[in-house]
Design a protein that fits this description.
Blueprint lengths: L6 H23 L14 H27 L20 H23 L1 H15 L5 H22 L10 H9 L1
Helix pairs in contact: 1-2, 3-4, 4-5
């Protein structure tokens, strides 16, 4: 088996991609607004998380690099054939890509259709994807949970969440 088909090589490539992403993310946080009187700035938490991810990614990179360049023993887990990330061959990868597309759609439709409606639709699709097929459970849960969450955030925590086409529900709750 070629070294480029092993899990160690896949980890090496993944660590390089992650390192590039983490450097980019850290640079993006340097553009956050600075508040003069605050001890903790808006960029503080994201930068701490990115630095932590960076440290663990460097460890993954070093381990993978050493295994790929020095060679591995025959029974080593990292010497096994890496699974395919081809969405046509691996249904798990296809499902993961579909969920990523759903997340993008969620953010795009959030303001237009509102939190409750978009969350209900995404919940139905996600539950169907993970194998839940009982519509008597899927539909009520997908409607009730976003409504309860919206009510908690809107009324109790006073967070203004877009309702989109369901604005009359917000107006009704405001009258109560």
């Amino acid at each position: 088996m070629k070294k480029t088909q092993t899990k160690a090589f896949a980890s090496l490539v993944s660590s390089i991609v992650l390192l590039i992403f983490e450097v980019w993310a850290y640079i993006e946080t340097t553009g956050f607004r600075v508040h003069k009187r605050a001890h903790v700035q808006p960029a503080t938490f994201p930068q701490i998380m990115i630095i932590g991810m960076f440290i663990f990614t460097v460890i993954l990179f070093v381990q993978s690099f050493l295994k790929v360049t020095r060679g591995m023993k025959e029974g080593d887990y990292e010497n096994e054939l890496a699974p395919s990330i081809n969405p046509f061959k691996n249904k798990g990868v296809a499902a993961a890509l579909f969920v990523i597309v759903l997340c993008i759609l969620y953010t795009m439709l959030f303001n237009k259709l509102g939190y409750v409606l978009v969350s209900a639709c995404i919940s139905v699709i996600t539950m169907w994807l993970i194998g839940k097929r009982d519509l008597k459970i899927i539909i009520p849960v997908s409607i009730i949970v976003p409504l309860v969450m919206w009510f908690i955030f809107y009324k109790m925590l006073t967070v203004n969440i877009p309702m989109g086409v369901l604005q009359p529900i917000r107006d009704l709750v405001d009258k109560i």
